[in-house]
Amino acid sequence: MNPINTMKLQFEGRSVNEAFSRTAVAAFVTQTDPTIEELSDIKTAVSEAVTNCIVHGYRDTLGTVYITANLYPDSRITIKIRDKGRGIPDIKKAMEPMFTTAPEEERAGLGFAVMQTLMDKVKVTSKEGKGTTVTLERSIRSKGE
Amino acid sequence: MAVETELLAGLVIARLSGDIDHHGAKPLREAIDGAVIASGARELELDFRDVSFMDSSGIGLVMGRYRLMQELGGQMWLVNVAAHLKKVMILAGLDRLSILDKPIRRDGKEGKPGEPNQYHEAAI
Ligand SMILES: Nc1ncnc2c1ncn2[C@@H]1O[C@H](COP(=O)(O)OP(=O)(O)OP(=O)(O)O)[C@@H](O)[C@H]1O
Ligand SMILES: [Mg+2]
Fold it and tell me: Could you give the ipTM of this predicted complex?
């Protein structure tokens, strides 16, 4: 199925852009007429993935974060969030709740668990030294259903 | 993201506002811990009334303050947590720490578990 609308966003992996990027994605998604709860879920999941690019992917460096959002005719949205950072050696382990490689920063190790709870699908691909791509998918229910 | 702290007889009330994310977590953490340590308070109340957004960085913030108060032999709890934020807290298991919407102490009076949240009612 081809998307009916696409948005691409690219920005420097500075923490100040976490709020900018989740708000920008939410603004794009608004055209599907989501509920406030759906919008809040999407903002939270995007924030998790973008923060991971900045905190882990580009740990101690500054790199670019890439987002592509697609809207489909069946009210499904996909949001791809990508970095060209260090990558994840063991994805299965990384996605376990409470697993974190940065406990000293008071990280809870719950970012992936939050994404999985709030989205219909979360797909992660990664290559060490090359980067990580997280694809979030969520169907927007029309209001009143 | 901002925080305002107030000290009441051994209790620090931290009123958080705006978005709690990775970008803002560190200054919040420093302000809250600073207020607790400087005052010697043993109780900490985090007021979420004006918090609009929170992700897992907020969970880290809450769990870190919970640990600090445990270390100090004190207590902490949260009030006025909106439903969309509570959803994230529950999936993190914060409900099991029974710090969500605990009864509030007023004028040094101890609230009993299960009592309505007085702060909440006053806000409605
Ligand atoms: N984009 C990424 N690049 C490299 N490693 C990553 C990336 N995203 C996640 N990881 C790895 O996966 C682990 C788990 O990520 P997750 O978001 O679940 O928890 P966290 O970021 O450590 O903590 P929290 O999200 O609760 O603050 C991270 O600690 C990190 O090791
Ligand atoms: Mg994370």
Answer: 0.93
